[in-house]
Design a protein that fits this description.
single chain; 27% strand; two-stranded antiparallel ribbon; alpha/beta; ten-stranded mixed beta sheet; Rossmann fold; globular
């Protein structure tokens, strides 16, 4: 196979919150795509033994619905040195901090603050996490909370030609969704070959569902993850639904904020679309924050990449 040489001047600077990337292209970008098809891309392992699901109690719908064994004494008290505040050090690798910056981006809907981990130049995948009510951009880059699971996604992105972004969601209303959409538009223009994974926790699901309606964003999606979040009636018929964007639903069976029955109803509705790629992971006895702690990012994203 003929290799196409592409020279890229790797300047990644932000002034006034604006991206500046200088690309010097010596060939047509489509040729590069031919040498590395997106469908073949999968994330390499990182601390899989620590972060894989501790046990599968039940499989339904040919593996589309998983019931995962979750135990607070094991998965919080033994995993954390300070329960729910600081995970044991072996779960964490702080290498990505060297490639983490806090930035501001001006949009037509107002400025948006965010963290970016990794370098978008030639990125193959962009993972975005939107926090829930009362959170902010800092939640998704905290290396030691939620059992070290945010540190893992940071490492998975940096080690797999990816970028991880955590924006401020503000009030998680239409204005917030608009600001995040403008930010993603700017990022995706600079990453012509990258696929987007959009993950939303709890009330942040409103942003996921708003962006699912946007044709330009949906056409670049590898998947949507709703972690302790909710479904929406208008998802069926949305741009993301028309593009058959894979949907991952992670939920605790004992969630007292968003009852799991509502999420299971959304799962069943998506299943009514023949062959629609949807997966539900039920963390048995888990609460509202359990999916953010326990979701296996690598397993989830690799399923999305294979299904999309």
């Amino acid at each position: 196979m003929v290799q196409v040489r592409i020279s890229v001047e790797d300047r990644y600077a932000v002034r006034g919150g604006q991206f500046r990337f200088l690309f010097v292209l010596w060939a047509v970008m489509a040729c590069l795509l031919a040498t590395a098809p997106a469908s073949a891309f999968q994330l390499d392992p990182f601390k899989d033994r620590l972060f894989s699901y501790p046990g599968i109690i039940e499989r339904r719908d040919d593996g589309a619905y998983l019931v995962v064994d979750y135990r607070e004494l094991r998965d919080i008290n033994k995993r954390d040195s300070v329960p729910e505040r600081r995970v044991n050090r072996r779960y964490v690798d702080l290498m990505p901090r060297r490639r983490q910056t806090e930035q501001t981006f001006p949009t037509q809907a107002g400025e948006i603050d965010y963290f970016v981990v990794g370098n978008p130049v030639n990125a193959r995948i962009v993972t975005v996490y939107v926090h829930g009510r009362g959170g902010d951009r800092k939640q998704g880059v905290n290396d030691f909370s939620f059992g070290g699971n945010f540190n893992r996604i940071k490492n998975l992105m940096v080690r797999n030609s990816g970028v991880y972004i955590t924006p401020d969601g503000g009030q998680l209303d239409d204005h917030a969704a608009a600001r995040i959409r403008y930010l993603l538009d700017a990022v995706l223009k600079q990453v012509p070959n990258g696929r987007l994974v959009l993950a939303c926790g709890s009330a942040g699901g409103s942003v996921c569902h708003a962006l699912a309606q946007n044709e330009a964003i949906a056409s670049r999606m590898a998947g949507i993850a709703l972690l302790g979040s909710f479904g929406a009636d208008n998802f069926v018929g949305s741009a993301a639904w028309r593009h058959r964007v894979p949907v991952f639903l992670g939920h605790g069976s004992a969630d007292s904020v968003i009852p799991i029955g509502n999420v299971e109803a959304f799962y069943r509705r998506l299943r009514e679309t023949s062959g629609y790629p949807v997966r539900m992971v039920r963390f048995e006895t888990g609460g509202h924050g359990t999916p953010i702690r326990m979701t296996d990012w690598r397993d989830m994203i690799n399923w999305m990449l294979a299904a999309s």
